[in-house]
Design goal:
Layout lengths: L17 H27 L8 E2 L5 E9 L3 E8 L2 E9 L6 H11 L6 E11 L2 E6 L5 E5 L9 E13 L1 H7 L6 H12 L5 E4 L8 E5 L18 E10 L2 E6 L5 E2 L8
Parallel strand pairs: 4-6, 10-12
Antiparallel strand pairs: 1-5, 2-3, 2-5, 3-4, 5-6, 5-7, 8-9, 8-11, 9-10, 11-12, 11-13
Length: 263
């Protein structure tokens, strides 16, 4: 027998037929299943969450001696004779220099001067960074200069690892797999955020290295083709407080034929 078409009348109670009820039920079940599948796929393609922290919704005032060695940072005294170097970052995918422009115009060279900066802390695995989102939150607390941070030369080394942007890696994005996350890191580094080498070698002298050119100058755009690519980097290592620096010749970076463990 030919099945009659159902006709729904909104103001008539119980006017929904069995076929319509079945269709609605199937649609709802399909929608729930699709959402669950999407959540599972999102979880699969994300790296395991780390215990890193980004204080996005709470600002902290940090005081210390400003240095560019070679990237802007504050040397903060934790206890007498014990210091931590806090790497400075800008808001979004930018370095701190645009936010330091006003106080540089007012006070001149900031090297060795004591500053207080209000921003958002990022910290993970012993490293601390500070995001600045407003140049008005930077003040000079002491104009007397302090001598530059001394670096300890550690000689030539070879390190296997991957180059990342420290802002996302240490807590902001907790990067997952794929080209999107690698592209985000490239934008951050090209915008002035310092590149960091994350070592894969358990015997390396450090897990993390700030990268510079052979003269100790900042590098940004030249390093972009190597971001998130497992590589071997040869260079001259230095110890700068609680950070290590690796001076490299970018043209001598050797990519490895293996998948990224970070991106």
């Amino acid at each position: 027998m030919k099945q009659k078409d159902e006709f729904y009348i909104g103001y008539v109670e119980d006017s929904v037929g069995n076929l319509t009820k079945k269709s609605l039920k199937n649609f709802v079940l399909f929608g729930i299943g699709f959402l669950i599948l999407g959540a599972l796929l999102f979880g699969i393609f994300q790296n395991t969450a780390s215990n890193s922290s980004f204080d996005f919704d709470s600002a902290t005032k940090v005081s210390g001696v400003y240095h560019e060695m070679p990237y802007p940072m504050l040397q903060v005294e934790l206890t007498e004779g014990i210091y931590k170097n806090v790497v400075l970052l800008g808001f979004g995918k930018f370095g701190p220099n645009p936010y330091l422009k006003d106080i540089r115009n007012q006070e001149g060279d900031l090297e060795g001067k004591h500053l207080t900066i209000e921003g958002n802390l990022i910290y993970y695995n012993g490293k601390t960074l500070l995001q600045i989102d407003d140049g008005q939150k930077i003040s000079l607390t002491n104009s007397k200069r302090t001598k530059s941070i001394s670096t300890e030369s550690l000689g030539a080394i070879s390190v296997e690892g991957e180059i990342v942007d420290p802002k996302c890696y240490f807590g902001v994005m907790k990067p997952g797999y794929g080209k999107i996350h690698r592209s985000c890191a490239a934008l951050c580094i090209s915008g002035g955020i310092p590149p960091v080498l994350v070592s894969d070698d358990p015997n390396a002298i450090s897990d993390y290295f700030l990268l510079t050119d052979l003269k100790g100058n900042p590098i940004h755009k030249d390093i972009l083709p190597y971001i998130g690519q497992p590589s071997i980097l040869n260079g001259l290592a230095e110890k700068l407080g609680d950070w290590h620096i690796l001076r490299i010749d970018v043209s001598q970076i050797r990519k490895l034929n293996k998948e990224s463990s970070i991106y």
